[in-house]
Each structure stands twice: as C-alpha cells, then as structure tokens.
Amino acid sequence: MDLDVWLAPFLSAMGRKTRRHWARLYLRGLLGPGDHKSLQPMAQRLGLSGHDQLQHFIASPAEPLRVCRRLIVLGQAAMGWSPTLA
Question: What pTM did the predictor assign?
C-alpha cells in the first residue's frame, strides 16, 4: 500500500493543510535511510532548502487526541466493529 494512501485518514485528523504537508514529509524522513534523529540531514535527504520548517512542525502543538480517535475508529472498522468515536 502506498504511504500517502495509508496516511490519508490520519493526516485529515491533523487539521490545517500545512500541518498535513509537514507531517507527511517528516514521516517520510523518519522512515527513510540515514540519521533519523537529526533534522538537518533529514531535510537534505527530503530535498528541502533548510530544516527550519521541520523544526517548526515538531515544536508546534499537535492534536494527538484527534489522531488517536481516528486510529481507534480505523482499528474498529478493520475488526468489523461499529465505530464508537467520531
């Protein structure tokens, strides 16, 4: 399965379009080869001109509860259960 297809339900729970964009890039950086903990090499591997925007994404407040709720609903659907959270 394509990563973007798999991520779509989770990214939609993240709100703003820019947040979804940087979340996708950051995850690609984490899953790709190289030093996973350093933003500067990650930004270079992703073809970015700098790492500032990745740093801003990481430092900005997230809404983990929305993403967790989405994960629960998808998990319930995969097991054939009726979703209990919106």
Answer: 0.71
The pLDDT score that the predictor gives to residue 83 is 58
Residue 48 lies in a domain: yes
| Tally of domains in the chain | 1
Q: How many CA atoms lie within 13 A of 9 on its CB side?
A: 11
Q: Is residue 38 part of a domain?
A: yes
d(CA 1, CA 64): 24
Task: Determine the structural domain holding residue 36 and report its residue range.
Answer: 3-61
Angstrom distances, CA of residue 10 to CA of 35, 49, 67, 74: 25, 27, 6, 10
